Each structure stands twice: as C-alpha cells, then as structure tokens.
Amino acid sequence: THMWAAFLLSFGVIFVAELGDKSQLMALAFATRYPAIPVLIGITLATALVHAVSVLVGAALGAAIPTTAISIAAAAAFVAFGIWTLRGDELSDDEEERAAKPTRNVIFAVGGAFFLAELGDKTMLATITLATTEGLFGTWLGSTIGMVAADALAILVGQQLGARLPERTVKIGASILFFVFAGVLLYEALA
Length: 191
Description:
- By secondary structure, this protein is mainly alpha-helical.
- It has helices at 2-18, 22-33, 36-64, 67-87, 93-100, 106-118, 122-131, 136-161, 167-190.
- α3 (36-64) runs parallel beside α6 (106-118), α3 (36-64) packs antiparallel against α8 (136-161) and α4 (67-87) runs antiparallel to α7 (122-131).
- The protein is globular, with a radius of gyration of 16 Å.
- 45% of the residues are buried.
C-alpha cells in the first residue's frame, strides 16, 4: 500500500507540474509534425530515464537529511513550483528548432529533446523532492506516468482545440495545487 500511496501522490503532483510546462509545448510541437504514438514513446522513454535518476538523487538526499528539514524544504520547493507555474514556460529557440527539425527516427529525436529539456526542470525537481520521503518505485512509476499522461493530454486537447485553451486558467489552477501541497507539507513538518 505504501507503493500505491507514493504512486498516487507522485502521479498527481507531476501531472499538475506538467500542466503549462514547456514539455507540453514540445509535445504539441512534435505532434503537429509526427504521428502521436512515436512521439509518446519518445516522451515515455526520456521521462522514465530522467525520473529514475531523480528518484535515486531524492533517495540519497532523504537518507542524509532529517525528515523535518526535508518536509520544510519540500514545502518551500512546492511554493517555488507554484510561482514557476504561474510565470509559465516557453520553448527556447533551440528547443523550437529541435521540435521542427525533420528526422528519420522520431522516437530518438523526441526522446533526446525531452531528456535534455527535462534536466533541471520543475518536474525533475519535484520528483527528487517526492523521492526524499516516498517509496522509490511508486514515486518513479507515478511521476513517469503522470508526466506522460499530461503530455498525452496536451497532444490530444491541443490537436482538438488549438489556440482556444485557457492557458492562464490552467496555470492558476496548477499553481494553487502546488501551494496546497506546500501547505500540507509545512503542516506535517510543524505538527
């Protein structure tokens, strides 16, 4: 049951973190040029690798730092993620160029672009934060599936609705959820 709790928490947090993230913009950009299935496979492979590294880093930090300090740091991190989400992400010129570049092997192109884009991204940092206190496998699985689900949703919704998405509403809603997570963590640390 601990594994499933870690899975559900990680899935929810990373799904929310991915809303309005540059990875969603990349997923949409790739999906306008290539079939959705190879794009999703590339996203899944890159995400699984980045989040495996994140979980290992989080586990090492969790073993070395006292639990109360981790909870307070995690609460501060989630406040920062909320602010980061409100600010929003945009693709850099280099990331837009990678998404627009024609390629023979879509899976490797998408996977490579996503791997590089996710290094140091808020979803990687959120996964590290979660792995300091939660089960490793559940955190890895939940964070990976949460991110892929959010990117798949972006591809599907983006293809259907185009520019009619209420981006500001999505950003505000995701930010509020981060602030709620921060409040819960801070309460647990100080209670």
